[in-house]
Each structure stands twice: as structure tokens, then as C-alpha cells.
Amino acid sequence: MTTEDTQYAHQPVMLEEVLDMWFSQSEGFYVDGTFGRGGHSRALLSRLGENGRLIGIDRDPQAIAAGQQLAASDSRFHMMAGRFDCLPQAVEQAGRPIDGLLLDLGVSSPQLDDAARGFSFLRDGPLDMRMDPTQGESVAEWLSYAAEKDIANVLYRYGEERKSRWIAKRICETRKEQPITRTLQLADLIESVLGRNEQGKHPATRSFQALRIHINGELDALDQVLEQSLETLAIGGRLAIISFHSLEDRIVKLFIRDHSGRAPKGRGGLPLGDELPQRLEPVGKVMRASKAELKVNVRSRSAVLRIAEKVA
Ligand SMILES: C[S@@+](CC[C@H](N)C(=O)[O-])C[C@H]1O[C@@H](n2cnc3c(N)ncnc32)[C@H](O)[C@@H]1O
Fold first, then answer.
1. Quick check: 14 and 305 in contact, CB under 8 A?
2. pLDDT in tens, 164-200
3. Which residue of 11, 138, 245, 250 is 20 to 30 Å from 303, comparing CA positions?
4. How many Å lie between the centroid of ligand 1 and the Cα of residue 105?
């Protein structure tokens, strides 16, 4: 283990549930689209046979390094760098359809805990929030020029922040005096607009979530990979998705419903009266972390796991 691994560890969420409900073919081909520190991948490898294959994908340089280390010690595993919607390339490389795709969405504990990554409203650091800091612009860069109305829209859409307009206004007033470049500077600004008292929740929680989702194009990547999964999964292959907030979970829930022949007519982009081709079947009920897991892993509190199988 490297110093970074021990300093910023990540505890995989709902590990047993994922393996029990998602993994079935010991010689199968699996993709972990959100490798992180490989908690789910390592557990999967421990059940995978000699001819089984696993591809890990992540866009974060530290996660990629951890994956490459694993790949060097296990020939059944291969690490790919990039957004998880590079899924078709992964499948092309393997030359066979996938038996399972896992997405454990959002950020990892190492990303949140390392102040230098700029994700945390509790630790001071540069206001960045990019999962891949080599691509695109940081939150600080975006906030330096974005229109007040666009900032308010992002806070409202991705954070469900009711006072989004007030916060956006304060950001635009403040940046005339000084650039907003630090995480605590933004957290304090939001607190000065909303006040402190929010039933144990930091007032900046929703805004930080919104800015992170926006700057990383998270929901767009999710939409894309869900569509790709229909073409890349083998019949009988399973999709397992762990979401951490209602926006993500809603996208996953509607996607499964709209491809399982259960969409109300006129929904899911289909003309009224059209029959839906059934391509996915939900597996079991929506799952949440067990009481035992909640006690030892606070991150599992908001986790929601959905599994679906490709049936046609
Ligand atoms: C919750 S963590 C996954 C943790 C992992 N299951 C484990 O047990 O270590 C999410 C990971 O997915 C990555 N990620 C999130 N969205 C991504 C995307 N669109 N493309 C590629 N990686 C993404 C993040 O960089 C992060 O490392």
C-alpha cells in the first residue's frame, strides 16, 4: 500500500449485496465503471475464476494509479482511464458482451478527504472539484465568469437549493471585489446567505453537490452509460447501480422502468399507444445499506442499490 492509500481509504458500500445480486458467472466478463480504490473490484476478483475478466474504469488519476497497480498483479484485471461512457471501447477491447456492469456513483472518500482536491466544504483547499483535474475547468474558474442566472440554475437543478438565486447573487457581488478560489471561502459565503441552523447539515451541502455534478457533467455521463449498457450487456447480464442522491436515483429508476415494458404510454420518449420492447427486468427490490453497515460506514446512509437484468 502507498502512503496515499493508507491516508485516504475508501470503504466499499453494500459490497455483499452487490456481489450476491449482481455477480453470477465465475468465468464471466465484468466492468466496474467506478473503480475508485477498487473495493468492489477486489471482492469480485476474489470470486472470479481463472478465465474470468474484469475491466475497471475511472477518470481520477489517483484511482487510475491504484487500478494500474492492481492490473500489474492480476492478469484477469485491466484498468481503463476515462469517463465510464467509454464503455463501448472496453467491450470492443474484450471482444465479448458484458455479464455485469457496476456503477458506484459520485465521489470516493479519498476525493472528499483530500483538501487539495477541493471537494470539501469542511476542509480548506483550492475550489476545484474535478474528478479528472487534467480536463475541463475548475469550479473556481467557472464561478469567475458564469452568468448569475446560470449559477442559480445549477444550484437549483443539481442541488435542489431553494435559495439558489440569493446565493448566486452573493457570489456575483463578491467576485467583483475578490475572486472566489477557496472551498471555505465559498462555504462561508453560502453560510452567510443561509444562516447556520439546518438540522445538523452544513448549509453548503446542497450547493457543493450541485457544483460538483455540474463541473463533472455527472448526470450526462450517467445518461450516456445507461443507454450504452443496453447494447453492451449480454442477455442475462446485469446492471448494478448505487446512487447517493435522488437526482441520480431518479434517472436510474426511470431508465429501468422505461426499458422494462412498464413505462406508462406516452412516456420515455415513445409515441402514445406504442408497445415497449422489453429489454430490462428489475432484479429484486431497491436495496439500502443494512443496519450493521450503517453503524460502520456513514457514507452508506444515503446509498440506494438498483439491479436490472437484460432479458432481450
Ligand atoms: C464512490 S467511488 C467508487 C468506489 C469504489 N466502488 C470502491 O469500492 O473503491 C466513485 C468513483 O467513480 C469515479 N467516477 C465518478 N463518475 C465517473 C465517470 N463519469 N467516469 C469515470 N469515473 C467516474 C470517481 O472518480 C470515483 O473514483
1. yes
2. 999 999 999 999 999 999 999 999 999 999 987 667 7
3. 138
4. 6
What three-state secondary structure class fits 1? coil
How far apart are alpha carbons 147 and 69 in whole angstroms? 43
The arithmetic mean of pLDDT across residues 120-125, rounded, is 95
| 138 vs 212: CA distance, rounded Å | 9
SS (H, E, C) 187-226: HHHHHHHHCCCCCCCCCCHHHHHHHHHHHCCHHHHHHHHH
Provide φ and ψ at 57, rounded to 5°.
-125, 140
84 among the known binding-site residues? yes
* Cα angle value 10/12/16 (rounded, 5°): 160
Domains defined for the chain, CATH in brackets: 3-110+219-310 (3.40.50.150), 132-215 (1.10.150.170)
Residues with CB under 6 A from ligand 1: 10, 12, 34, 36-40, 57-60, 63, 83-84, 104, 106-108, 131, 221
pLDDT at 306: 98
pTM given for the model: 0.93
List all residues 6 or more positions away from 239 whose beta carbon is below 8 Å from its beta carbon. Answer: 100, 101, 103, 226, 229, 233, 256, 280, 307, 308, 309, 310
CB 100 within 8 A of CB 240: yes
